[in-house]
Design a protein that fits this description.
The chain has about 240 residues and is of the alpha+beta class. It folds into two domains: about 1-90, no CATH class; about 95-230, Nuclear Transport Factor 2, Chain: A. About 55% of the residues lie in helices and about 20% in strands. The longest helix has about 45 residues, at about 70-110. The protein starts with a helix and ends with a strand.
C-alpha cells in the first residue's frame, strides 16, 4: 500500500496534471474580471482548457480519486463565469441605456430651445463645468479657450440643424448600438431622430450621440457628458 502511494505521488503525469489543475483554478478565480469588460475573456477560456486537460489527462484509475477535486472545481467555476458574463453584460448595457436616454433627450431639447451655453456645458467633463448660471457666463467671458470651444460648438452642423427645427420638433428615440465599460469609464452610443418643420418643409434629422461618464466610486457620484454628436448616415 505504501509503495502504491509513493508510486502515485512520484508519477510525472500526476505532477504535471496537478500543476495544470492549480493553474486552471487560479485562472478561474480571476475570471470574475470578465464582468468588468470583455478584455478579460481569455481568463475563463484558459481556465477551462487547463482544468479540462488536468481532468481528462489523468489515468482513469486516478480520475475517481481526490486528484480530480481541484480540476473539477476550476472547471465548474470557469464554465459558470462563461455562462454568467453575457447575461451580466447585457443587463449592464440595458441599465446604462435607461440612464442615458433621458440625459440625451435633455441635451437635444436644450439645443432646440437655444440654450446653447447650457448644452455646451453638458458636453464638457465635470471638472470643466461652471457651478451655476452666473459663474457659467463669467467663465465664457473670462476664459478664451472655453469661449473658442463654444464658438466651434455653436457652428456645429448638428447644433445648427436642431436650432433651425426649434423646440416644437418631435424627438424619437431609436435605440442603442454600443455600450462600453472598463475600470475607468462607461460609454454608450444612442440614436435619435428629430422631426420638425424648417423653412416651410418637413425635415428629419437622424442623430447619434455618444454619452460618457467616469465610473462611479464609493462616496462620489459621476455625471454624464456628451463629448461626440453627429448626423447619422441613413442606410
Amino acid at each position: 500500500m505504501q509503495e502504491s502511494i509513493e508510486t502515485e505521488s512520484d508519477s510525472p503525469q500526476l505532477e504535471q496534471m496537478r500543476w495544470s489543475a492549480i493553474l486552471g483554478l487560479a485562472l478561474a478565480a480571476f475570471s470574475f474580471l470578465v464582468l468588468i469588460g470583455p478584455a478579460w475573456w481569455f481568463l475563463p477560456v484558459l481556465a477551462t482548457a487547463c482544468c479540462g486537460l488536468a481532468l481528462w489527462g489523468l489515468d482513469p484509475e486516478l480520475r475517481a480519486r481526490r486528484h480530480r477535486v481541484v480540476p473539477l472545481l476550476g472547471l465548474c467555476l470557469s464554465l459558470f463565469i462563461i455562462g454568467l458574463a453575457p447575461t451580466a453584460h447585457f443587463s449592464r448595457s440595458r441599465h446604462l441605456e435607461s440612464l442615458c436616454k433621458k440625459y440625451g433627450r435633455e441635451w437635444i431639447e436644450m439645443v432646440m430651445r437655444k440654450q446653447l451655453h447650457e448644452a455646451h456645458q453638458m458636453s464638457l467633463p465635470m471638472n470643466g463645468r461652471a457651478i451655476d448660471h452666473d459663474s457659467m457666463l463669467e467663465l465664457y467671458r473670462s476664459t478664451q479657450r472655453i469661449d473658442q470651444n463654444f464658438m466651434s460648438f455653436e457652428q456645429n452642423t448638428v447644433v445648427r440643424h436642431l436650432v433651425l427645427l426649434g423646440e416644437t420638433a418631435a424627438i424619437e428615440y431609436e435605440g442603442m448600438t454600443e455600450a462600453q465599460s472598463n475600470d475607468e469609464y462607461d460609454a454608450v452610443t444612442l440614436h435619435y431622430s428629430v422631426v420638425g418643420t424648417a423653412d416651410g418643409a418637413e425635415r428629419s434629422v437622424p442623430l447619434s450621440l455618444v454619452l460618457r461618464r467616469m465610473r462611479p466610486v464609493a462616496g462620489r457620484s459621476s455625471h454624464w457628458e456628451v463629448p461626440n454628436f453627429e448626423i447619422r448616415e441613413q442606410p
